[in-house]
Amino acid sequence: MPRSQGAEIFTVSTALGNVEAVFLPATPPTGDTRQPLVIFGHGNGEVIDYWIAALDGFRQRGIGVLLVEYPGYGRSTGSPSEAAIRRVMDAAYDHMAADVRVDSTRIFGFGQSLGGGAICLLSKDRSLRALILESTFPSLDIFAARYWAPAFLLRDHFDNLSSVAQFPGPVLVIHGRDDQLIPWKQGQRLAAAARSSTFRLYDCGHGCWDPERLPFWQDAVPFLVRSGILAQTQ
Fold this sequence. Notes:
Blueprint: E1 8-14, E2 17-24, E3 35-41, H1 56-60, E4 64-68, H2 82-97, E5 102-112, H3 114-125, E6 131-134, H4 140-143, H5 160-166, E7 170-176, H6 184-193, E8 196-202, H7 216-226
Parallel strand pairs: 3-4, 3-5, 5-6, 6-7, 7-8
Antiparallel strand pairs: 1-2, 2-4
Helix pairs in contact: 2-3, 3-5, 5-6
């Protein structure tokens, strides 16, 4: 696993297996005694190692980062399924919400592609202040037959559309204009289903994480301020 300053590796144990997680505390000193936290869900074909440094922008803005692996991915045991991912995400949330360094009222979720499904599952069971969904599908019932998906996903639904519709907080939906796997109009459907949403279309393809080139922070920071996660001065 790549190293990052202050990274804390721990194991989330459930009846369905032991999963690796990494907590990356916020790096700048803040006046807050407790820091907000983003729980990140990565896409299929990835592991949490890929994101150790990629999400430093959150840490630099005073937000801690929690990376949660999926069962059967990377060095984690168990088998991947919607139920297993849901249980792991809930357990990881509980672990960090009890940490004295974390403000449990300012925890939010950020999911990319499959990770959007993991975060939507979490939103059903635990209190999240806001959601950021990037390149995320409305439901696998729609996409499994048409687009490539790992075998375990074909057994599951990941009904993100209903999760977003039920979510009481604000939602930021980001999608690539040139996404060939999940066309951007599907992201627009997610945004339209939310009670309070912002939709942003970027000039990129699927899973286009490039915050240096794309206006992610120009969109995310005001969204996080409006959501009460960041102070107005940030």
